[in-house]
Each structure stands twice: as structure tokens, then as C-alpha cells.
Specification:
The chain has 298 residues and is of the alpha/beta class. The chain has a single domain, classed as Rossmann fold, CATH 3.40.50.1580. 31% of the residues lie in helices and 22% in strands. The chain is globular, with a radius of gyration of 18 Å. The structure holds 1-O-phosphono-alpha-D-ribofuranose (R1P). The site of 1-O-phosphono-alpha-D-ribofuranose has 13 residues, from strand 5 and helix 9. Belongs to the PNP/MTAP phosphorylase family.
């Protein structure tokens, strides 16, 4: 349920002030509405919004009510920010993310990461739906992301392009350690304890711009380049989250197998993506909540 917002309490839009100040006033506005200062930020992928339902003592904001926030336009992305407690830890959860193909500039797709940082988030957990490129992967597998290939970045589409604001981070951030090693190990340990060994993987995620799914030649190429899964999100958020010093953990749910064979009758489609999300949602939620219960912050 969204909170009623009084127009006069809305801060100015981001375009009216510096980007940093704008992000800060949005964060302060959210905290002023009785949202608890979160330690963990969660981003739900397509059809994986159920993660947000797990939060207790919820304070919910519709994106349209949050000053300077973009709007969700994709089926399977509800478009609300949920604050609440998960396993005794204060969390904030995006039920719906922003993609390049929705027409948002890349900086806008990643704006929530900077707001997370200014809210006090230390660890970001991102989830997504992705097509499996690795032949060993099956639909329903959960892939811990260990690295990424930023395909739009090769053409200059990077959320950090433009003037750098040192208050967020350095001009040239390192990305070889983007996906926190300890959190990946924690996911492996928790996954094993939960009996997920048969469908828990670790691999490389490649982002493309979308919204068209990949051709067969593109899938073959991506696979040869070292990608295990392909999607249209996450990487830009990760870059911005790391730039401002948050720890990152990310998961892909393999919702469909990328088509690699010219004789195949399979066709990628968003209905299958959402359907697989429904089928694996419970296990994915359990993995994330068990991890959150064990994450330590100083
Ligand atoms: O990455 P998420 O947001 O989970 O969504 C994935 O699912 C959609 C395609 O079915 C694309 O948006 C792709 O990126």
C-alpha cells in the first residue's frame, strides 16, 4: 500500500539540482516517511518480486510517488520500493528495476543504487532472469554471478560516463572484484545446506541492450566469448553499486535456454521467463533470505 504523499513535501526533481544533492534529498525524503535505514538492498528480477513479500513491518512506496524515481514499464516488475525487516535485518527491496530498452538513459536505470548508498545500504543483492548459454545449464538453475561482460559498455554505454562525482566514487573504479568472493562462498554454503547443489551454478553473465532476444548467431558468439547466461539488466547497477563502495552479490535464474541450434523449434519469450520465475521463486527467496540472515556488517 503506497503512502499518501503531500506535494509540498516532495523535494525538487534531480534536473533542478546537482545529481548528488538530488539523490540525497530523495534518500532523506524516504527516511522521513518512517522507512527504517536499510543495511541490505535487494533488486528483484523479472517475475521475482516475491522477494519483497518476505519483508516484515513493511513501508511501501509506489515508484510514481517517489520524487525523481523512474517508472517501471515491464510485466513482472511491480514498481514499488519496499522497506522492512528480513531475518532481523533492515532491508530495502526494489520490486521492479529499470532497463535500457524501456528508453531510460543508462544513468537513470542505475539511480536507485546511489539512493541505496545514501540510505545507508552496505550490501546489494541483485537477481535477474536470464537465458542459459552454457550447455550444461537447465531451465530452473540458479547461477551465482562471478563476473560479467558489459556488451553495451563496449560501445560507450556505461552509467559512469560523464563528469565523475568523487562523493560517490573514483573516476576509474576496478571491476575485477565486482562480485564479492565471500558472499559467493556464502551462497555456495547456504545452497548446499538447503539441498540446492543440483541446480546451483556459478558463471558469467552478459548484458545486452534488448528488448529483442538474441539471434542464434549472437548466442553462439556470446557463448564463445565466455558468457554462461545472457540478459538485459544487472550489470549497470553493479557498476554503480561498486563505484560507490557497496558490496555486491548477484544471482541469475536461468528461465530459458538460449537457442543455439538452427534446427531448434524453441523460441525465447517473456511468458516462459515469468513462468520459470514462478516455479523457482520459493527456492530463490529461501536462498536470499538465508544469506541475509548470515551477512555481517560492522
Ligand atoms: O533482467 P530482468 O529484469 O530479470 O529481466 C529479464 O527478463 C526480460 C526478458 O524476458 C528482460 O528484461 C531481461 O533482462
Amino acid at each position: 500500500m503506497g503512502l499518501k504523499i503531500l506535494e509540498e513535501h516532495k523535494p525538487q526533481s534531480l534536473s533542478q539540482k546537482s545529481h548528488f544533492t538530488g539523490c540525497k534529498s530523495t534518500a532523506e525524503w524516504l527516511l522521513a516517511q518512517k522507512a527504517a535505514r536499510p543495511q541490505v538492498g535487494i533488486v528483484c528480477g523479472s517475475g521475482l518480486g516475491g522477494l519483497g513479500e518476505m519483508l516484515k513491518d513493511q513501508v511501501v512506496f509506489k515508484y510514481e510517488d517517489i520524487p525523481s524515481f523512474p517508472q517501471s514499464t515491464v510485466l513482472g516488475h511491480t514498481g514499488q520500493l519496499v522497506f522492512g525487516m528480513l531475518e532481523g535485518k533492515p532491508c530495502v527491496c526494489m520490486q521492479g528495476r529499470f532497463h535500457l530498452y524501456e528508453g531510460h538513459p543508462v544513468q537513470k536505470t542505475t539511480l536507485p543504487m546511489r539512493i541505496f548508498k545514501l540510505l545507508g545500504v552496505k550490501t546489494v543483492i541483485l537477481t535477474n532472469a536470464a537465458g542459459g548459454l552454457n550447455e550444461d545449464y537447465k531451465v530452473g538453475d540458479i547461477m551465482i554471478i562471478k563476473d560479467h561482460i558489459n556488451m553495451p559498455g563496449f560501445a560507450g554505454v556505461n552509467p559512469l560516463a560523464g563528469k565523475n562525482d568523487e562523493r560517490f566514487g573514483v573516476r576509474f573504479p576496478c571491476m575485477s572484484d565486482a562480485y564479492d568472493r565471500d558472499l559467493r562462498q556464502l551462497a555456495q554454503d547456504v545452497g548446499e545446506e538447503l539441498g540446492y547443489k543440483d541446480f546451483l551454478r556459478e558463471g558469467v553473465y552478459c548484458v545486452l541492450g534488448g528488448p529483442s532476444y538474441e539471434t542464434i548467431a549472437e548466442c553462439r558468439m556470446l557463448h564463445r566469448l565466455g558468457a554462461d547466461a545472457v540478459g538485459m539488466s544487472t550489470v549497470h547497477e553493479v557498476i554503480v553499486a561498486r563505484h560507490c563502495g557497496m558490496r555486491v552479490f548477484a544471482l541469475s535464474l536461468i528461465t530459458n535456454k538460449a537457442v543455439m541450434d538452427y534446427n531448434s523449434e524453441e523460441k525465447a519469450n517473456h511468458e516462459e521467463v515469468l513462468q520459470t520465475g514462478k516455479q523457482r521463486a520459493e527456492q530463490l527467496e529461501k536462498l536470499v533470505s538465508s544469506m541475509v540472515s548470515r551477512i555481517k556488517h560492522n
